[in-house]
Amino acid sequence: MANDLDISRAATMQPITSIAAAAGIPDEALELYGRYKAKVDPDQVPAREEKGKVVLVTAMSPTPAGEGKSTVTVGLGDALARTGRRTVIALREPSLGPVLGMKGGATGGGYSQVIPMEEINLHFTGDFHAITSANNALAALVDNHIFQGNELGIDPRRITFRRVLDMNDRALRNVVIGLGGPGQGTPREDGFDITVASEVMAIFCLATGIEDLTSRLALITVGYTYDRRPVTVADLGVQGAMALLLKDALKPNLVQTIAGTPALVHGGPFANIAHGCNSVIATSLARDLADVVVTEAGFGADLGAEKYMDITSRAADVAPDAVVVVATIRALKMHGGVPRDRLDEPNPAGLEAGTANLRRHLRNITKFGLNPVVAINRFTSDTPQELDWLLEWCSQEGVEAAVADVWAGGGGGPGGDELAGKVLAALEKPSAFSPLYPLQMSVEEKIRTVVQEIYGADDVEFSVPALRRLEEIKANGWENFPVCMAKTQYSFSDDVSRLGAPEGFTVHVRDLVPKTGAGFIVAVTGAVMTMPGLPKSPAALRMGVAPDGTPSGLF
Amino acid sequence: MANDLDISRAATMQPITSIAAAAGIPDEALELYGRYKAKVDPDQVPAREEKGKVVLVTAMSPTPAGEGKSTVTVGLGDALARTGRRTVIALREPSLGPVLGMKGGATGGGYSQVIPMEEINLHFTGDFHAITSANNALAALVDNHIFQGNELGIDPRRITFRRVLDMNDRALRNVVIGLGGPGQGTPREDGFDITVASEVMAIFCLATGIEDLTSRLALITVGYTYDRRPVTVADLGVQGAMALLLKDALKPNLVQTIAGTPALVHGGPFANIAHGCNSVIATSLARDLADVVVTEAGFGADLGAEKYMDITSRAADVAPDAVVVVATIRALKMHGGVPRDRLDEPNPAGLEAGTANLRRHLRNITKFGLNPVVAINRFTSDTPQELDWLLEWCSQEGVEAAVADVWAGGGGGPGGDELAGKVLAALEKPSAFSPLYPLQMSVEEKIRTVVQEIYGADDVEFSVPALRRLEEIKANGWENFPVCMAKTQYSFSDDVSRLGAPEGFTVHVRDLVPKTGAGFIVAVTGAVMTMPGLPKSPAALRMGVAPDGTPSGLF
């Protein structure tokens, strides 16, 4: 069978100018990056009175088997476009680190991909590089402030803002910098995160424009003084330079799917320590261009969708009008206790047991006042009996569902038509969206609400350091921020091994990290990896370029 | 008086498609980056039988007063274009680090600038970010190799390849990485250089194409094994991924001058630990497009021009046909002992004394078989008497010279006409270029030759570690590489305070660093700064973006 790269290369791309013209993007708004990529200046696109509707694609708890959420997002967008609705897809940009490490990026799969796949996965239009630069300029200016006399009295032991690289580089997780004597700075502990974990990335994706971006950057807390007062970017006066470094990156990137549907691929924050969705600016622009906007939230619905509702929707006017929950026969079996190497075999009991996971996610969506649609992403090992059984199960649960055959049948084929029909029907139904909790609730209660209402936990337990942080958050006036849960994506609990729909568990909050620029409090449960490492056999070692410039090893 | 940014903004830019069409660049070779920047694929530009001639712009020993070498390069290009000759300018890209630190970039000044100035100085087309990524991917893969079992037996104490950031970040000069326990890597000393100091940057600028690039990357020595054998990129198998990360960056960037002359701005290695000239690919492409190509070498002629002749010219077929040496009345006075705060006043004795510096540079150029032309870059404080005196001095020295009034009179005005005339005349004269030394000479003798013939030193002295390195270089078979001198740009000697044309001095080589991918041996004299720091009041603190996207503070 053809792999994703082969399919992507075999696709006939339209000039991005044609895609833009068909999407109603005026010429003066378009900045070309080669023939098949462009940046779009939202200020040059007329705002519409009636904005497009937003379809949020999320998923059951992910498994190592892979659910294909991006593939469904792209395939659904293509299928909606086939109905004649003006459709724009909004997706996150892939990070270079994982591309060199494990796998290609997050550009969908099979015949449901955004292209040009190689360029999107390598540098793209340079947005992540701009974010890396803005992040590291701030870091350099913090250390330079200390070196030049430390007028603000920053405690080098209490700097919380870290440097970043868009790279999987384990050796940079914990470092000591400023060595070499008085002329080289002040020695202190530091560390590098991957760029997608930067607070600058989160801000970039939540900002509604350059002014909002600058204001949010100014609010970043970089650390604390010797007398424990927070030090912000505004105290250092660096928000202007950071905004300048980000101003071109802030324009959404236009590409196309294999079927020629316009896609805005822009921004890409982590879905654990950040909110895990493409930029608000891209989604807003898409709503000015299209009748229907299909966008995707990171990880499973307990993380990505909850954050979309409680963080992203509040930061900008982008509440979802419909929610698609991606499920697969294989993932359900895994949640039902079937071992990974037996997923290809029919296992009705395992399949049924696994529906507990999906059921809890579906129930959660209704808690936000929204009606979910289940997208059963078809894998080649699925039998018709299994698919029929799952459709029937959904029907008994009172939930709309459709099989999406978009990996092999995407690219403008009929594989997503049924799903598109269900989604369009859902968009017609009244919905009464509301976030899960009011912002006035205490941080502790907000966390308890998420943990009990969404995860199904009995309660939450705070570590001693986390309790101390709760006090600091109150003292610093940060109580009204929403919470951003950093939890494993593989389980509703904070224990990766508890698949399905665990009961009778407690979630342990180890630490709380205020992100005052992004505007949320990260609640850390378990070990959260903000700088991945490379595997034993990194994908990079198989990559190359032919003399004619054709890349290899990139999938 | 208008500043550089005001002048740059007031300029009317032509669409880059028009500039490209006028330069004879076929449509299929052009990849647009917005309206005023493009990458040009050299493989899509027909090669010409008769290549354009190369004018190398270099300078007397620089002073803090500023000589305006880039300004003269741009102004000369504009003036040559005015004569009707098909002209292309080839320049280095500016680094972001200094832009945030001290000053704008290296895009010329006044009415002799390449534009859009802001975009060229900020991210541009992302080349330096690609180089940073390729460099740091290698570094991560080295540490990952050790972490995953260290099959090659790399000695973590003897890794010579460092990470880079395009940032002035003093605190990263000396760091300890890999802290945090066995799961986080192996603790070792490391450090970050600025991206322009990366060997990957030097290779990028010397490579003749993607295959040559890949071969050179494979030859980088990253460190040594426990039994002191060199470890190369080829041993790790990373050259393919690095080339892939660089493949799009490798296409030269097309912009325009204020007068509308096409300029290829591409690559930018340091002129001390590297060779300090724009990419060979850009210069070669320019020679396929134009009758005359004006390019610039970094620092003074003792460093930049010597390296152009002995390193760049050998790496590719780009020997200069004429050499312009930029001099200023102010710099001559400073070399003649006039204090910096008195440079605005006439001082005939000081001026005459300072000519000793220029004379030695002019003599040096003839040692390569080339006839120099002196460009007297006019500053507003220069008097007609001073300029006439210097023209007369040049005449007595038997050297062609012209006053270049290109800062205020550039942009297509007549300020560079006389210089252009002299340069065209020089191009008609026969020249007999040859490098200074044969490659078969020992490294020690090559260094001695440069030091005696070019700097005018009595001899060279090697430190004990440098002598040990000479042995290693012989043992590893690296004896036939040219040498790349890392010396202060402010003096012919290795003592910054000895201005003019010092006599009776010895140059001290502290260390030798083999750059086996770039293909030269760096001879380090004095302290060479490969990671600059930010000043007390960094330019970044004055930068910002207006709500309409207009940048401020960038000059």
TrEMBL record, chains A, B:
Keywords: ATP-binding, Ligase, Nucleotide-binding, One-carbon metabolism
EC number: 6.3.4.3
Family matches, as Gene3D superfamilies: Domain 2, N(10)-formyltetrahydrofolate synthetase (3.30.1510.10), Formyltetrahydrofolate synthetase, domain 3 (3.10.410.10), P-loop containing nucleotide triphosphate hydrolases (3.40.50.300)
PROSITE patterns, A to Z: FTHFS_1, FTHFS_2
Binding positions for ATP per the UniProt entry: T63, P64, A65, G66, E67, G68, K69, S70
Annotated family: Belongs to the formate--tetrahydrofolate ligase family.
Designated name of the protein: Formate--tetrahydrofolate ligase
Organism (species): Arthrobacter pullicola
Taxonomic lineage of the native organism: Bacteria, Bacillati, Actinomycetota, Actinomycetes, Micrococcales
